[in-house]
Amino acid sequence: MKTILYPVPETWDGLCKRPVLENKNIDTTVRAIMKKVKTEGDRALLEFSKLFDKVAVTEMKVGKEEIEESDTHVPVKLRKAIIIAKKNIEMFHQAQNLKAKVIETMPGVRCWRKNVPVEKVGIYIPGGSAPLFSTVLMLAIPAKIAGCRQKILCTPPGADGKVDPVILYSAKLTGITEIYKIGGAQAIAAMAYGTETVPKVYKIFGPGNQYVTKAKEIALSEGIAIDVPAGPSEVLIIADSSADPEFIAADLLSQAEHGPDSQVILLTDSKKLIKKVNEETAKQLRDLPRKSIAGHSLLDSLAILFSSLDECIEFSNMYAPEHLIINTENAGELAGRVINAGSVFIGKYSCESAGDYASGPNHTLPTNGFATTYSGVSTDSFVKKITFQELSGEGLKNIGPSIELMAEAEKLLGHKKAVSVRLKKLKNV
Amino acid sequence: MKTILYPVPETWDGLCKRPVLENKNIDTTVRAIMKKVKTEGDRALLEFSKLFDKVAVTEMKVGKEEIEESDTHVPVKLRKAIIIAKKNIEMFHQAQNLKAKVIETMPGVRCWRKNVPVEKVGIYIPGGSAPLFSTVLMLAIPAKIAGCRQKILCTPPGADGKVDPVILYSAKLTGITEIYKIGGAQAIAAMAYGTETVPKVYKIFGPGNQYVTKAKEIALSEGIAIDVPAGPSEVLIIADSSADPEFIAADLLSQAEHGPDSQVILLTDSKKLIKKVNEETAKQLRDLPRKSIAGHSLLDSLAILFSSLDECIEFSNMYAPEHLIINTENAGELAGRVINAGSVFIGKYSCESAGDYASGPNHTLPTNGFATTYSGVSTDSFVKKITFQELSGEGLKNIGPSIELMAEAEKLLGHKKAVSVRLKKLKNV
After folding, report:
1. Is the dihedral of CA A365, A366, A372, A378 positive or negative?
2. ipTM exceeding 0.95?
3. CATH 1.20.5.1300 fits A392-427, yes or no
4. Candidate from A289, A380, A387 with C-beta closest to B413
5. Which of A319, B71, B75, B364 suits A290 as a labelling partner, its CA being 20 to 30 A distant?
6. Cβ contact, residue pair A405, B356, below 8 Å
7. pTM above 0.90, yes or no
């Protein structure tokens, strides 16, 4: 980790900058992939599967039986863990699904807002070295709670042309039965445009590599909604001298192992802690299977010493981290001062892993500074909040004259007339 | 209006299509304007003001005194109407500002979600033939309720170089005191990038012409959030034989007068109603000050006869209108079956004008079919919902083993270790 001592405020902005991953070739490549899927449909998908996944897929849709029997391939212990995580995630996301509440703003003017599910949603789950079934839970559970009618999932096939059973098991457990063996930018294109086999959806969720991210960005510009703008994952830890360096090191490494571009930052008011954390990190790194990735990410990571925890939280708010761990004695108080962050972990026992897997809140969060304006995925992400209003004759009498005056002042006489014709009839009743 | 009788379902998709306003020149022009503002700052803004608004602005920021004395230029009656609208909008949007509620997903695992305001927001209010002060209310009120720290407003100066007093009055009334005389794409650029005078914001709200819309689209692609994707305004009315043709005609015209590209659609199961509405519309059009605009828009509008109200609501859900008026005997029941719409007006006295100005719900809504996935502006639009979690030692003991198993199955051993080191220490306590 690079250590920075007492940076002056003028340098903070620079310290908050994320690395820019600009790659013009990606844009051209992804646009070409998407265009081909749009025009050629399934044929293009099968071709890309051969090319990128090195697999000759014959049937893109995963069969009913394969999904049904997925349980048998997942160890009982893991299934139990997944069921516990599911229950917690459900409980947290169910509480977000609020019933409409009528507000009578004036006598006879009844207004409310109702959660109505997005009809068709698509979930992308990346392949890679391990099956990311936790993201299946994080996206499929709120989609189910919201009541989305059509929920599909795309994920690349493994070398054996199959989808990992734990992905299938997690999908089945959370109500998804339409699963396609398609990966990468072509999967995003398939869900954005629809093909003979894959239905078009209105909103696309899920993480992925730079190609997937670019494809989602292009889909967004073409009118398909997406979950959150993406970027490399991040953790920022605020810790004081009371923190256990072993915990801090483990938390830093758990973020660093995500990828070589993971952003890892430690803020503290204790110089001693930085030293101890560095020692502890080096020690723990040795045993980490993904040590080359984590080590790479650590090279660019920062340990910043501030003169107070006040400065730490101020800097954190400027940085707007995806994950913020507050491991200080006054963690609860500092948490109350968070302005910009995706998700906050309070106190020494609240490690990011808890939220990544099982505590309840969602792990799909805004990165790259987007936490200044965007929220993480929640049940809200799977619904529209439609407003309704119902005016009685009395209601229109109460509010009508104000509307007439305002419409006239905006020179929209048609708007005024829509009220006037009704008020006239009401007089004659 | 074009009348279409009993369209077969295969044709519905075509009938739902919005006109495509593609103009490549706009893209080039707006990018040039934005680039100039980004590099030259205030100097570019003053130059564009001269060029586009035909006004030599010397001071872009509206002075304190000018805002203070705006009251005196707004008729008392109009001020009273605005205050009534403000109260209703406040009441409706205040109810959306929910307090955080702690969910204990397992003993010792406490999680919650908290509304935290977007720190810096910008509101754009277009110029044109009349001052759109109602949009000031619709955007400034939820911004205030959310608690946004910095709220700025840009609006083009009139021919006299001033901002209309009713805009200033509405802004002052709703807590906005930072107002800049800047219009068009250059105003969006100023708020997106910041200049010597105009502060950079995180999220930009407000309607505008094609240049403003394009500028917001470009800002979005560069990481600045925006309210909702924009398009021409729309109303879809579902009416049966019980509806008063005079009301329907007035509602259609109140939408048609917005602009020549306004989308106006009537769905009904009564052929007679279409005839009567046509007659009534022709009659009312004669007296409308904006009759040339409304007449133009009506030419492209549709009256569609279906064999049942079931088909009407089905078509409406496919069209996903910005505004949906349901003027039928069973309006409440039909409203319960709405899947895609921005805002719904139920029954004969609920005209769109009520929601446009004063009933309480927001009038900034998704158009162009975006109601399939997007919600209108609400207090939610001005906050992020940050999740928090706090695990006690007991909580981690309860949930830890599940996290360890799941992390291991995802081959993220660093994630597992963040739990294990803590559980180990807890054992030794």
Report:
1. negative
2. yes
3. yes
4. A289
5. A319
6. no
7. yes
